[in-house]
Write a structure and sequence with these properties.
By secondary structure, the protein is α/β, with parallel strands linked by helices. It has 14 helices and 20 strands. The strands form 5 sheets. It has a 7-stranded mixed beta sheet, sandwiched between helices. The protein is globular. 51% of the residues are buried. The structure holds NADP nicotinamide-adenine-dinucleotide phosphate. The site of NADP nicotinamide-adenine-dinucleotide phosphate (NAP) has 30 residues, from helix 8. The site of NADP nicotinamide-adenine-dinucleotide phosphate has 30 residues, from helix 8.
Protein backbone atom coordinates (compact mmCIF):
# COMPACT_ATOMS: atom_id res chain seq x y z
CA UNK A 1 0.00 0.00 0.00
CA UNK A 2 1.18 3.56 -0.68
CA UNK A 3 1.85 6.12 2.04
CA UNK A 4 0.97 9.52 0.63
CA UNK A 5 2.15 12.99 1.48
CA UNK A 6 -0.78 15.32 0.74
CA UNK A 7 -0.81 19.12 1.05
CA UNK A 8 -3.76 19.94 3.36
CA UNK A 9 -4.01 23.46 1.87
CA UNK A 10 -4.80 22.17 -1.58
CA UNK A 11 -5.52 18.46 -1.35
CA UNK A 12 -2.77 17.80 -3.89
CA UNK A 13 -0.51 14.77 -3.52
CA UNK A 14 3.08 15.88 -2.96
CA UNK A 15 4.82 12.50 -2.91
CA UNK A 16 4.01 8.81 -2.70
CA UNK A 17 5.99 6.18 -0.84
CA UNK A 18 5.69 2.40 -0.78
CA UNK A 19 5.17 0.70 2.57
CA UNK A 20 8.02 -1.52 3.72
CA UNK A 21 7.69 -5.19 2.84
CA UNK A 22 7.87 -7.90 5.51
CA UNK A 23 11.45 -8.67 4.42
CA UNK A 24 12.49 -5.03 4.75
CA UNK A 25 10.93 -4.82 8.21
CA UNK A 26 12.81 -7.95 9.23
CA UNK A 27 16.12 -6.45 8.02
CA UNK A 28 15.52 -3.26 9.97
CA UNK A 29 14.61 -5.09 13.19
CA UNK A 30 17.75 -7.20 12.90
CA UNK A 31 19.87 -4.12 12.24
CA UNK A 32 18.37 -2.45 15.33
CA UNK A 33 19.18 -5.49 17.48
CA UNK A 34 22.72 -5.74 16.06
CA UNK A 35 23.58 -2.08 16.45
CA UNK A 36 22.24 -2.00 20.01
CA UNK A 37 24.86 -4.54 21.09
CA UNK A 38 27.65 -2.05 20.31
CA UNK A 39 25.85 1.28 20.63
CA UNK A 40 24.89 0.59 24.25
CA UNK A 41 28.58 0.70 25.18
CA UNK A 42 29.32 4.03 23.45
CA UNK A 43 30.71 6.48 26.00
CA UNK A 44 28.23 9.14 27.09
CA UNK A 45 30.41 11.99 25.80
CA UNK A 46 30.41 10.47 22.31
CA UNK A 47 26.63 10.17 22.33
CA UNK A 48 26.42 13.77 23.55
CA UNK A 49 28.67 15.04 20.74
CA UNK A 50 26.42 13.38 18.15
CA UNK A 51 23.31 14.79 19.83
CA UNK A 52 24.83 18.27 19.76
CA UNK A 53 25.50 17.76 16.06
CA UNK A 54 21.82 16.80 15.56
CA UNK A 55 20.88 20.09 17.26
CA UNK A 56 23.15 22.03 14.87
CA UNK A 57 21.60 20.32 11.84
CA UNK A 58 18.10 21.18 13.08
CA UNK A 59 19.07 24.80 13.54
CA UNK A 60 20.89 25.11 10.22
CA UNK A 61 18.07 23.45 8.28
CA UNK A 62 15.13 24.91 10.20
CA UNK A 63 13.71 26.84 7.22
CA UNK A 64 13.63 23.79 4.95
CA UNK A 65 12.40 21.49 7.72
CA UNK A 66 9.72 24.02 8.66
CA UNK A 67 8.49 24.13 5.05
CA UNK A 68 8.35 20.35 4.97
CA UNK A 69 6.18 20.22 8.12
CA UNK A 70 3.86 22.94 6.84
CA UNK A 71 3.53 21.29 3.44
CA UNK A 72 2.62 17.92 4.94
CA UNK A 73 0.35 18.84 7.83
CA UNK A 74 -0.56 22.52 7.48
CA UNK A 75 0.81 24.21 10.61
CA UNK A 76 1.69 27.90 10.11
CA UNK A 77 5.26 28.25 8.90
CA UNK A 78 6.39 30.38 11.87
CA UNK A 79 5.31 27.62 14.24
CA UNK A 80 6.98 24.96 12.09
CA UNK A 81 10.33 26.75 12.16
CA UNK A 82 9.94 27.24 15.91
CA UNK A 83 9.29 23.49 16.20
CA UNK A 84 12.64 22.69 14.53
CA UNK A 85 14.32 25.09 16.99
CA UNK A 86 12.59 23.43 19.94
CA UNK A 87 13.85 20.04 18.75
CA UNK A 88 17.38 21.45 18.78
CA UNK A 89 16.74 22.56 22.37
CA UNK A 90 15.69 19.08 23.52
CA UNK A 91 18.74 17.53 21.81
CA UNK A 92 21.04 19.99 23.60
CA UNK A 93 19.21 19.54 26.91
CA UNK A 94 19.80 15.78 26.91
CA UNK A 95 23.31 16.09 25.46
CA UNK A 96 24.19 18.28 28.46
CA UNK A 97 22.20 16.51 31.19
CA UNK A 98 21.92 12.80 30.39
CA UNK A 99 25.21 11.95 32.09
CA UNK A 100 23.96 13.49 35.31
CA UNK A 101 20.44 11.96 34.98
CA UNK A 102 21.89 8.48 34.52
CA UNK A 103 24.86 8.61 36.86
CA UNK A 104 25.12 5.73 39.35
CA UNK A 105 23.28 6.48 42.60
CA UNK A 106 25.03 5.21 45.68
CA UNK A 107 22.68 4.11 48.48
CA UNK A 108 23.98 3.25 51.95
CA UNK A 109 22.90 -0.24 53.09
CA UNK A 110 24.54 -3.10 54.99
CA UNK A 111 26.51 -3.95 51.82
CA UNK A 112 30.10 -2.97 51.37
CA UNK A 113 28.76 -0.90 48.53
CA UNK A 114 25.29 -0.68 46.98
CA UNK A 115 24.12 1.51 44.19
CA UNK A 116 21.64 1.91 41.36
CA UNK A 117 22.82 1.76 37.76
CA UNK A 118 20.72 2.84 34.78
CA UNK A 119 21.17 0.61 31.72
CA UNK A 120 19.58 0.87 28.27
CA UNK A 121 16.87 -1.63 27.34
CA UNK A 122 17.29 -2.08 23.59
CA UNK A 123 15.26 -1.22 20.48
CA UNK A 124 12.20 0.86 21.42
CA UNK A 125 9.28 1.31 19.03
CA UNK A 126 7.86 4.86 18.87
CA UNK A 127 4.39 5.24 17.35
CA UNK A 128 3.95 8.94 16.73
CA UNK A 129 1.29 11.45 15.57
CA UNK A 130 1.41 14.06 12.81
CA UNK A 131 0.46 17.15 14.82
CA UNK A 132 3.98 18.05 15.96
CA UNK A 133 5.72 15.85 13.42
CA UNK A 134 9.25 16.67 14.61
CA UNK A 135 8.80 17.60 18.27
CA UNK A 136 6.90 14.46 19.31
CA UNK A 137 9.63 12.29 17.81
CA UNK A 138 12.60 14.23 19.13
CA UNK A 139 11.28 14.38 22.68
CA UNK A 140 11.32 10.58 22.61
CA UNK A 141 14.45 10.07 20.52
CA UNK A 142 16.84 12.48 22.28
CA UNK A 143 16.59 10.84 25.73
CA UNK A 144 16.26 7.32 24.29
CA UNK A 145 19.47 7.60 22.26
CA UNK A 146 21.33 9.37 25.06
CA UNK A 147 20.38 6.48 27.37
CA UNK A 148 21.93 4.02 24.90
CA UNK A 149 18.72 2.64 23.44
CA UNK A 150 18.03 2.51 19.72
CA UNK A 151 14.84 3.86 18.13
CA UNK A 152 12.35 2.52 15.59
CA UNK A 153 9.85 5.12 14.38
CA UNK A 154 6.39 4.32 13.07
CA UNK A 155 5.24 7.82 12.24
CA UNK A 156 1.70 8.87 11.26
CA UNK A 157 0.93 7.88 7.68
CA UNK A 158 0.34 11.47 6.52
CA UNK A 159 3.88 12.73 7.35
CA UNK A 160 6.27 10.33 5.55
CA UNK A 161 8.62 13.09 4.41
CA UNK A 162 9.09 14.31 7.98
CA UNK A 163 9.57 10.72 9.14
CA UNK A 164 12.39 10.12 6.66
CA UNK A 165 13.98 13.53 7.33
CA UNK A 166 14.27 12.70 11.05
CA UNK A 167 16.18 9.48 10.36
CA UNK A 168 18.40 11.44 8.00
CA UNK A 169 19.21 14.01 10.73
CA UNK A 170 20.39 11.31 13.13
CA UNK A 171 22.46 9.65 10.39
CA UNK A 172 24.09 12.96 9.43
CA UNK A 173 24.74 13.66 13.11
CA UNK A 174 26.95 10.57 13.17
CA UNK A 175 24.81 8.03 15.03
CA UNK A 176 25.61 4.52 13.78
CA UNK A 177 23.52 3.13 10.95
CA UNK A 178 20.44 1.58 12.53
CA UNK A 179 20.52 3.54 15.80
CA UNK A 180 17.42 5.40 14.66
CA UNK A 181 15.32 3.97 11.83
CA UNK A 182 12.08 5.11 10.27
CA UNK A 183 9.70 2.34 9.28
CA UNK A 184 7.26 3.44 6.58
CA UNK A 185 4.38 1.19 7.59
CA UNK A 186 0.67 1.41 8.28
CA UNK A 187 -0.78 0.91 11.75
CA UNK A 188 -1.76 -2.67 10.90
CA UNK A 189 1.95 -3.61 10.81
CA UNK A 190 2.51 -2.49 14.42
CA UNK A 191 1.21 -5.63 16.15
CA UNK A 192 3.77 -7.97 14.59
CA UNK A 193 6.59 -5.58 15.46
CA UNK A 194 5.42 -5.32 19.08
CA UNK A 195 5.28 -9.10 19.24
CA UNK A 196 8.85 -9.40 17.96
CA UNK A 197 11.26 -10.32 20.76
CA UNK A 198 13.91 -7.87 19.46
CA UNK A 199 11.64 -4.90 20.24
CA UNK A 200 11.74 -4.44 23.99
CA UNK A 201 9.39 -1.53 24.70
CA UNK A 202 7.09 0.99 23.04
CA UNK A 203 5.96 4.56 23.38
CA UNK A 204 2.85 5.92 21.70
CA UNK A 205 1.71 9.49 21.32
CA UNK A 206 -1.71 9.64 19.77
CA UNK A 207 -5.36 8.93 20.34
CA UNK A 208 -6.97 6.90 23.09
CA UNK A 209 -7.98 3.97 20.81
CA UNK A 210 -4.45 3.70 19.38
CA UNK A 211 -3.04 3.79 22.93
CA UNK A 212 -5.37 1.06 24.11
CA UNK A 213 -4.42 -1.15 21.18
CA UNK A 214 -0.65 -0.74 21.48
CA UNK A 215 -0.64 -1.04 25.28
CA UNK A 216 -2.72 -4.22 25.23
CA UNK A 217 -0.49 -5.93 22.68
CA UNK A 218 2.65 -4.84 24.54
CA UNK A 219 1.05 -5.85 27.83
CA UNK A 220 0.54 -9.42 26.61
CA UNK A 221 4.25 -9.50 25.79
CA UNK A 222 5.15 -7.91 29.15
CA UNK A 223 6.82 -4.97 27.46
CA UNK A 224 6.94 -1.55 29.01
CA UNK A 225 4.90 1.24 27.41
CA UNK A 226 4.59 4.98 27.78
CA UNK A 227 1.32 6.50 26.54
CA UNK A 228 0.84 10.18 25.71
CA UNK A 229 -2.79 10.37 24.64
CA UNK A 230 -5.52 12.94 24.14
CA UNK A 231 -6.63 15.77 26.34
CA UNK A 232 -9.54 18.11 26.99
CA UNK A 233 -7.65 20.68 28.99
CA UNK A 234 -9.58 23.17 31.11
CA UNK A 235 -8.67 26.86 31.09
CA UNK A 236 -10.24 28.42 34.17
CA UNK A 237 -10.56 32.16 34.64
CA UNK A 238 -11.43 33.61 38.07
CA UNK A 239 -12.45 37.22 38.91
CA UNK A 240 -9.01 38.30 40.21
CA UNK A 241 -7.24 37.36 36.96
CA UNK A 242 -5.84 39.84 34.48
CA UNK A 243 -8.72 39.44 32.03
CA UNK A 244 -7.04 40.92 28.93
CA UNK A 245 -4.08 38.63 29.34
CA UNK A 246 -6.34 35.63 29.99
CA UNK A 247 -8.36 36.34 26.82
CA UNK A 248 -5.33 36.76 24.55
CA UNK A 249 -3.50 33.77 25.99
CA UNK A 250 -6.71 31.72 25.88
CA UNK A 251 -7.17 32.36 22.16
CA UNK A 252 -3.55 31.41 21.53
CA UNK A 253 -3.83 28.32 23.73
CA UNK A 254 -6.94 27.15 21.84
CA UNK A 255 -5.72 27.85 18.31
CA UNK A 256 -2.06 26.87 18.51
CA UNK A 257 -1.21 24.41 15.73
CA UNK A 258 -4.60 25.19 14.10
CA UNK A 259 -6.22 23.88 17.29
CA UNK A 260 -4.67 20.42 16.92
CA UNK A 261 -2.60 20.11 20.06
CA UNK A 262 -3.09 17.60 22.85
CA UNK A 263 -2.44 20.36 25.41
CA UNK A 264 -4.47 23.04 23.68
CA UNK A 265 -6.91 24.73 26.06
CA UNK A 266 -10.19 23.17 25.01
CA UNK A 267 -12.77 24.06 27.67
CA UNK A 268 -12.93 27.63 28.99
CA UNK A 269 -14.52 27.72 32.43
CA UNK A 270 -15.15 31.30 33.48
CA UNK A 271 -16.43 32.72 36.78
CA UNK A 272 -19.96 34.08 36.37
CA UNK A 273 -18.94 37.60 37.55
CA UNK A 274 -16.63 38.09 34.56
CA UNK A 275 -18.13 35.62 32.08
CA UNK A 276 -19.81 38.17 29.77
CA UNK A 277 -16.73 40.35 29.52
CA UNK A 278 -14.52 37.31 28.85
CA UNK A 279 -16.91 36.00 26.20
CA UNK A 280 -16.98 39.39 24.38
CA UNK A 281 -13.18 39.69 24.29
CA UNK A 282 -12.62 36.06 23.39
CA UNK A 283 -15.08 36.06 20.50
CA UNK A 284 -13.61 39.32 19.18
CA UNK A 285 -10.06 37.94 19.18
CA UNK A 286 -11.14 34.62 17.60
CA UNK A 287 -12.85 36.60 14.79
CA UNK A 288 -9.69 38.63 14.20
CA UNK A 289 -7.49 35.59 13.49
CA UNK A 290 -6.07 35.48 9.98
CA UNK A 291 -6.93 32.25 8.19
CA UNK A 292 -5.06 31.34 5.06
CA UNK A 293 -2.02 29.85 3.38
CA UNK A 294 0.13 28.36 6.17
CA UNK A 295 3.27 29.14 4.17
CA UNK A 296 2.63 32.86 4.73
CA UNK A 297 4.31 34.37 7.78
CA UNK A 298 1.23 36.39 8.73
CA UNK A 299 -1.18 33.43 8.84
CA UNK A 300 -2.58 32.52 12.27
CA UNK A 301 -4.70 29.53 11.26
CA UNK A 302 -3.98 27.16 8.38
CA UNK A 303 -5.82 24.06 7.23
CA UNK A 304 -6.49 21.05 9.43
CA UNK A 305 -4.30 18.08 8.62
CA UNK A 306 -6.82 15.84 6.84
CA UNK A 307 -10.39 16.03 5.46
CA UNK A 308 -11.39 13.45 8.08
CA UNK A 309 -10.43 15.82 10.90
CA UNK A 310 -12.61 18.56 9.38
CA UNK A 311 -15.56 16.17 9.14
CA UNK A 312 -15.10 14.91 12.72
CA UNK A 313 -14.89 18.48 14.01
CA UNK A 314 -17.97 19.58 12.10
CA UNK A 315 -19.88 16.60 13.47
CA UNK A 316 -18.87 17.52 17.05
CA UNK A 317 -19.98 21.14 16.54
CA UNK A 318 -23.34 19.95 15.19
CA UNK A 319 -23.81 17.65 18.19
CA UNK A 320 -22.94 20.50 20.57
CA UNK A 321 -25.49 22.77 18.89
CA UNK A 322 -28.09 20.01 19.02
CA UNK A 323 -27.50 19.75 22.77
CA UNK A 324 -28.16 23.48 23.26
CA UNK A 325 -24.85 25.29 22.60
CA UNK A 326 -24.96 28.78 21.06
CA UNK A 327 -22.60 29.44 18.14
CA UNK A 328 -20.95 32.75 19.07
CA UNK A 329 -18.73 32.82 15.99
CA UNK A 330 -17.76 30.40 13.22
CA UNK A 331 -19.36 26.97 13.25
CA UNK A 332 -18.73 25.59 9.78
CA UNK A 333 -16.24 24.47 7.14
CA UNK A 334 -14.77 27.21 4.99
CA UNK A 335 -15.81 27.03 1.37
CA UNK A 336 -12.41 26.86 -0.34
CA UNK A 337 -9.91 24.21 -1.41
CA UNK A 338 -8.13 22.47 1.48
CA UNK A 339 -9.20 21.46 4.96
CA UNK A 340 -10.17 24.82 6.44
CA UNK A 341 -12.58 25.31 9.36
CA UNK A 342 -13.77 28.60 10.84
CA UNK A 343 -12.39 29.55 14.28
CA UNK A 344 -15.45 28.79 16.38
CA UNK A 345 -16.72 29.65 19.86
CA UNK A 346 -19.59 27.75 21.44
CA UNK A 347 -21.31 29.18 24.51
CA UNK A 348 -23.69 27.64 27.06
CA UNK A 349 -22.78 24.08 26.26
CA UNK A 350 -24.51 21.64 28.59
CA UNK A 351 -21.84 20.28 30.96
CA UNK A 352 -23.56 16.89 30.85
CA UNK A 353 -23.68 16.63 27.04
CA UNK A 354 -21.21 13.94 25.92
CA UNK A 355 -19.45 16.34 23.53
CA UNK A 356 -18.59 18.75 26.35
CA UNK A 357 -15.96 16.43 27.80
CA UNK A 358 -14.63 15.00 24.54
CA UNK A 359 -11.40 16.10 22.95
CA UNK A 360 -12.13 18.71 20.26
CA UNK A 361 -9.20 18.70 17.83
CA UNK A 362 -9.43 21.93 15.84
CA UNK A 363 -10.04 25.67 16.35
CA UNK A 364 -13.28 25.28 18.32
CA UNK A 365 -13.56 26.61 21.89
CA UNK A 366 -16.33 25.79 24.33
CA UNK A 367 -17.23 28.25 27.11
CA UNK A 368 -18.77 27.33 30.45
CA UNK A 369 -20.07 29.63 33.19
CA UNK A 370 -19.10 28.68 36.77
CA UNK A 371 -20.91 30.14 39.75
CA UNK A 372 -18.12 29.25 42.23
CA UNK A 373 -14.62 27.77 42.44
CA UNK A 374 -16.20 24.45 43.46
CA UNK A 375 -18.25 24.42 40.29
CA UNK A 376 -15.23 25.44 38.18
CA UNK A 377 -13.21 22.52 39.56
CA UNK A 378 -16.14 20.13 39.10
CA UNK A 379 -16.53 21.10 35.43
CA UNK A 380 -12.76 20.96 34.88
CA UNK A 381 -12.54 17.41 36.22
CA UNK A 382 -15.68 16.18 34.40
CA UNK A 383 -13.76 14.50 31.60
CA UNK A 384 -12.06 11.17 31.11
CA UNK A 385 -8.86 13.05 30.23
CA UNK A 386 -6.22 14.50 32.53
CA UNK A 387 -3.38 15.99 30.52
CA UNK A 388 -2.79 19.70 31.20
CA UNK A 389 -4.75 22.42 32.98
CA UNK A 390 -4.49 26.17 33.25
CA UNK A 391 -6.05 28.37 35.93
CA UNK A 392 -6.02 32.17 36.03
CA UNK A 393 -6.29 33.81 39.44
CA UNK A 394 -4.23 36.08 41.66
CA UNK A 395 -5.86 34.75 44.81
CA UNK A 396 -3.36 32.55 46.70
CA UNK A 397 -6.07 30.34 48.24
CA UNK A 398 -7.64 29.70 44.85
CA UNK A 399 -4.24 28.91 43.36
CA UNK A 400 -3.62 26.36 46.13
CA UNK A 401 -6.99 24.70 45.47
CA UNK A 402 -6.39 24.42 41.72
CA UNK A 403 -2.91 22.96 42.25
CA UNK A 404 -4.34 20.43 44.69
CA UNK A 405 -7.63 19.53 43.06
CA UNK A 406 -7.26 19.61 39.28
CA UNK A 407 -6.91 16.07 37.96
CA UNK A 408 -4.15 16.57 35.40
CA UNK A 409 -0.49 15.86 34.66
CA UNK A 410 0.26 19.58 34.92
CA UNK A 411 -1.23 22.75 36.38
CA UNK A 412 -0.18 26.11 34.99
CA UNK A 413 -1.26 29.13 37.05
CA UNK A 414 -1.64 32.38 35.06
CA UNK A 415 0.03 30.80 32.05
CA UNK A 416 -0.57 28.61 29.05
CA UNK A 417 0.24 24.90 29.22
CA UNK A 418 3.41 24.25 27.22
CA UNK A 419 6.08 21.57 27.11
CA UNK A 420 9.63 22.36 28.15
CA UNK A 421 12.57 19.90 28.07
CA UNK A 422 13.33 20.75 31.72
CA UNK A 423 9.85 19.81 32.99
CA UNK A 424 8.17 16.39 32.97
CA UNK A 425 5.27 16.01 30.56
CA UNK A 426 2.42 13.50 30.59
CA UNK A 427 -1.05 12.79 31.82
CA UNK A 428 -3.30 10.92 34.20
CA UNK A 429 -6.68 9.20 33.61
CA UNK A 430 -7.24 8.39 29.92
CA UNK A 431 -4.52 10.83 28.85
CA UNK A 432 -2.03 8.05 29.45
CA UNK A 433 0.82 7.18 31.77
CA UNK A 434 4.54 7.60 32.04
CA UNK A 435 6.41 10.83 31.51
CA UNK A 436 8.48 12.40 28.78
CA UNK A 437 11.13 15.11 29.13
CA UNK A 438 13.31 16.09 32.09
CA UNK A 439 14.97 13.44 34.24
CA UNK A 440 11.70 11.49 34.43
CA UNK A 441 11.60 11.03 30.64
CA UNK A 442 15.06 9.55 30.28
CA UNK A 443 14.37 7.10 33.12
CA UNK A 444 11.35 5.54 31.36
CA UNK A 445 13.32 3.24 29.06
CA UNK A 446 16.15 2.05 31.29
CA UNK A 447 16.78 -0.95 33.46
CA UNK A 448 17.02 0.46 36.98
CA UNK A 449 19.56 -2.10 38.11
CA UNK A 450 20.29 -2.62 41.79
CA UNK A 451 23.91 -3.50 42.50
CA UNK A 452 24.81 -4.95 45.91
CA UNK A 453 28.40 -5.81 46.72
CA UNK A 454 29.29 -7.65 49.91
CA UNK A 455 32.60 -8.51 51.48
CA UNK A 456 33.03 -12.25 51.97
CA UNK A 457 36.44 -11.87 53.58
CA UNK A 458 39.80 -13.21 52.44
CA UNK A 459 39.80 -16.65 50.79
CA UNK A 460 41.79 -19.07 52.96
CA UNK A 461 44.80 -20.66 51.27
CA UNK A 462 44.20 -24.40 50.71
CA UNK A 463 47.63 -25.49 51.80
CA UNK A 464 49.25 -23.75 54.66
P1 LIG B 1 -3.82 8.46 16.05
O1 LIG B 1 -4.81 8.28 14.99
O2 LIG B 1 -3.96 7.69 17.29
O3 LIG B 1 -2.40 8.19 15.39
C1 LIG B 1 -1.20 8.27 16.13
C2 LIG B 1 -0.25 7.21 15.65
O4 LIG B 1 -0.77 5.94 16.02
C3 LIG B 1 -0.09 7.17 14.15
O5 LIG B 1 1.24 6.80 13.85
C4 LIG B 1 -1.06 6.09 13.72
O6 LIG B 1 -0.71 5.49 12.49
C5 LIG B 1 -0.91 5.11 14.87
N1 LIG B 1 -2.05 4.24 15.10
C6 LIG B 1 -3.35 4.55 14.99
N2 LIG B 1 -4.10 3.48 15.36
C7 LIG B 1 -3.25 2.49 15.69
C8 LIG B 1 -3.41 1.15 16.13
N3 LIG B 1 -4.61 0.61 16.33
N4 LIG B 1 -2.30 0.42 16.36
C9 LIG B 1 -1.09 0.94 16.19
N5 LIG B 1 -0.85 2.20 15.76
C10 LIG B 1 -1.93 2.98 15.52
O7 LIG B 1 -3.72 9.97 16.51
P2 LIG B 1 -3.56 11.24 15.59
O8 LIG B 1 -4.88 11.56 15.01
O9 LIG B 1 -2.41 11.08 14.67
O10 LIG B 1 -3.13 12.33 16.67
C11 LIG B 1 -4.06 13.03 17.40
C12 LIG B 1 -4.20 12.47 18.79
O11 LIG B 1 -2.92 12.43 19.43
C13 LIG B 1 -5.03 13.38 19.65
O12 LIG B 1 -5.86 12.60 20.47
C14 LIG B 1 -4.00 14.12 20.49
O13 LIG B 1 -4.48 14.66 21.67
C15 LIG B 1 -2.99 13.05 20.71
N6 LIG B 1 -1.71 13.64 21.07
C16 LIG B 1 -1.26 13.47 22.36
C17 LIG B 1 -0.07 14.07 22.75
C18 LIG B 1 0.45 13.92 24.15
O14 LIG B 1 1.61 14.22 24.37
N7 LIG B 1 -0.32 13.46 25.11
C19 LIG B 1 0.66 14.80 21.84
C20 LIG B 1 0.18 14.94 20.56
C21 LIG B 1 -1.01 14.35 20.18
P3 LIG B 1 -1.48 5.85 11.13
O15 LIG B 1 -1.25 7.31 10.87
O16 LIG B 1 -0.84 4.98 10.13
O17 LIG B 1 -2.93 5.54 11.37
Amino acid sequence: MAINSIDPSTGKTLKKFEELTATQIEEKLQLAADVFRTYRHTPMNERAAKMQRAAEILENDKQALGKMMTAEMGKPIKAAIAEAEKCAWVCRYYAENAQHHLADQVIETNAQKSYVRFEPLGPVLAVMPWNFPFWQVFRFAAPALMAGNVGLLKHASNVPQCALAIEDIFTRAGFPKGAFQTLLIGSDAVEAILNDRRVVAATLTGSEPAGRSVASIAGKQIKKTVLELGGSDPFIVMPSANLDEAVTTGVKARTINNGQSCIAAKRFIVAAEIYDEFERGFVEEMRALKIGDPMEESTDIGPLATPQIVNDLDEQVKRAVASGARVLTGGKKIDRAGNFYEPTVLGDLDVNAPVSCEEIFGPVATLFRASSIDEAIRIANATQFGLGSSAWTNDANEQARFIEELEAGSVFINGMVASDPRLPFGGVKNSGYGRELAEFGIREFVNIKTVWIGNSGERKAETE
